[in-house]
C-type lectin domain-containing protein (Cloeon dipterum), 125 residues
Amino acid sequence: MVTTGNGKKYFMGSDNKGLTYDSAATICCKLGMKLAEFATIASWNNFLAYFKPLTFSSWDYIGQTTDNGNNTDTWCASGTLVPDGIIPADMYNISCGTKNLIVLTPGGDLNHINPQNSVHRYFCE
């Protein structure tokens, strides 16, 4: 468990062999958690300030989003709106669990990846 500057706790898991999105989500669930979602831009910025320096060599799973078709996205697990400023306007997911999802790339940027691809780290809350 790690704690960011605002006191929010996250479990940062890793697997050197790599995990699919579903595997990472299952591990979070077994811990009584879910892949990290962010209710405010402030919570995202706080998370990113802590973890961005740690992403230099890995792709990292966070919660999956779905495109609402009206220039907004929703977190799949909670059903809450993704705050403006987290998901760039040119990145969209079609539906939860079926299409590309957004991950943190080495360096802390956002990018799309196929859910069946393996990455090495994930963040649960």
Observations:
- The beta strands are 2-3, 9-19, 60-61, 65-67, 73-75, 101-104, 110-113, 119-124.
- The two ends are 9 Å apart (CA to CA).
- Residues 63 and 77 are 7 Å apart (CA to CA).
- The chain has a mean pLDDT of 78.
